[in-house]
Amino acid sequence: MPDSDVDLATAAEMLGVHYQTAYRWVRSGALPAMLVRGRYRVGSEEVEAMARRRDRPVRPRALRPRGGYGGRRNQMFEHLLAGDDADARKMIAQLLDEGVGLTEATQEVLVPALWRIGEEWHEGRIGIWTEHRASATVERILGEHHPAPRGRRRGTAVVAALAGDRHSLPTLMAAIALREDNWRVQHLGADVPADELVDFCEREGADLAAITVTGSGGGRARRVAGALRERGIRAIVGEPGASLERLQREARGS
């Protein structure tokens, strides 16, 4: 074989994996190799190709718990209604341990529970302080986790809500969804002046801006998004009710 070939142990070291992992790749055909005098030899080109494949952004595979999310949503609603931080945090931690992505857990458990809390408030069955406490609990839970998936980042995304919109939780959810989908995220939070947002995106060389909207600020957000696009920066407006999966799809341009 050519001098540029390496043995399997060296290939594993170059790829940053255990020898047995590289061996399984060879046995499955994922990493082409030749057997020379009882030892596997791998072409350096094949090692480089495998490294490039491993560096490609990969969307996390969302695992759904057996039986779906209905029971978890009801339990989360009860935890938030009671102000039970510990059990609410424990449920999300358990879902993550089971292999559910943070975006999936947020979209399928936390958001529906918060919607029910909001409906209870609108119907006058609970006080506004209960709704605020529930939002603060969810914000603390999400703040404990920082997705850092493997692979090359898709680009730099800026997430913010415009001045006058003081709801920071939607911006946090959007930031988490984009981070988990391999974006490098600059999270500016809520109440950001439009001109400051545009200036920041230009200065940071942002590839994408995600503007969250709570209430009736959609028109203004779309105007700011238009101003960003005129400067060559892709912009997405997240209207109330839009899913995090939709945000990920639009961010990828799919």
Describe this structure as you would to a colleague:
The chain is α/β, with parallel strands linked by helices. It folds into three domains: 6-55, Orthogonal Bundle (Multidrug-efflux Transporter Regulator, Chain: A, Domain 2); 70-143, Methionine synthase domain (Methyltransferase, Methionine Synthase (B12-binding Domains), Chain A, domain 1); 156-252, Cobalamin-binding domain (Rossmann fold, 3-Layer(aba) Sandwich), CATH 3.40.50.280. The protein is built from eleven helices and seven strands. The chain has helices at residues 8-15, 19-28, 44-55, 70-82, 85-97, 102-122, 128-143, 169-180, 194-204, 218-230, 244-252, and strands at 6-7, 34-36, 39-42, 156-162, 184-192, 208-212, 234-238. The protein has a four-stranded parallel beta sheet with strand order 5-4-6-7, with helices on both faces. Helix 4 packs antiparallel against helix 5 (85-97) and helix 7 runs parallel beside helix 8 (169-180). The model has no long low-confidence stretch (mean pLDDT 90).
Shape: flat
As laid out across the biggest beta sheet, the strand order is: 5-4-6-7
Main beta-sheet annotation: 4 strands, parallel
- Helix and strand string, N-terminal first? EHHEEHHHHHEHEHEHEH
CATH architecture of the largest domain: 3-Layer(aba) Sandwich
Number of helices: 11
Using the coordinates above, name the CATH class of the largest domain: Alpha Beta
Our estimate of the beta-strand percent is 5-15%
What is the CA-atom radius of gyration, in angstroms?
Answer: 23 Å
Average pLDDT confidence is 90
How many structural domains in the coordinates? 3
Q: Roughly how many Å apart are the termini? A: 43 Å
Residue stretches low in confidence (pLDDT < 50, at least 5 long) are none
At the fold tier of CATH, the topology name of the largest domain is Rossmann fold
CATH superfamily heading of the largest domain: Cobalamin-binding domain
By secondary-structure content and strand pairing, the structural class works out as alpha/beta
